[in-house]
Amino acid sequence: MSNEQALRLLREIREQDFLSDNLRAKIDQVLALPTAAPGDEREAFEREMSKPPFEFDLSRWPEEAPAAWPGNYKQYHVQCAWDAWQARAALPPATLPLLSDDEMPPLPEGWPARFRCESCDGHGEVGDPISMGYFQPPECQQCPDCNGRGWASEGAAYSEDQLRARDRAVEAAVRKQMGVV
């Protein structure tokens, strides 16, 4: 889908009766944005897709009539990537307001937790057991990262519900700042 097609589709959608005034205003903002020249987008796309790890074959069908899909890329996956690139280019730039520290909702009170040491896998010992003699049980070396405790740091742990509630509170604060209800 080209930029022109996307803009035409947005104009058609804007005229629908069921749209809210907020959504209609957002569509008007998108339609008012300057659009990039198609050549600039294609050059950027081809530059990006020719680099590793993609290294796509960027050959296109000729613009003349005998071609089945004039101007399209010969490889279907490249054409799909180009269509997605154009759709992305037609979107307005994402601008989310930043919340200051006093506008951020407070963190929930977490449970005190000790976080496992990655070096010793929480055992406090590293390496193979060393024989201490005939009558002594074998011993391992003490983990240098946690000093044999098995945990590397202490902090607060949060449940999924607490984190989701904070996410909803941050989203509500951003919506309030943007004036979106």
Give the count of helical stretches: 5
Bin the helical content. 25-40%
Amount of beta strand: 5-15%
**What is the residue-mean pLDDT, rounded to a whole number?**
78
Distance between the first and last residues' Cα: 32 Å
Key structural traits:
181 residues, 4 strands, two-stranded antiparallel ribbon
Walk me through the topology.
Layout: H1 3-14, H2 21-32, H3 38-49, H4 76-90, E1 111-116, E2 125-130, E3 139-142, E4 151-157, H5 160-178
Antiparallel strand pairs: 1-4, 2-3
Give structural notes.
The longest helix has 19 residues, at 160-178. The strands form 2 sheets. The chain has a two-stranded antiparallel sheet with strand order 1-4. The chain has a two-stranded antiparallel sheet with strand order 2-3. The protein is 39% helix and 13% strand. It has 181 residues and is of the alpha+beta class.
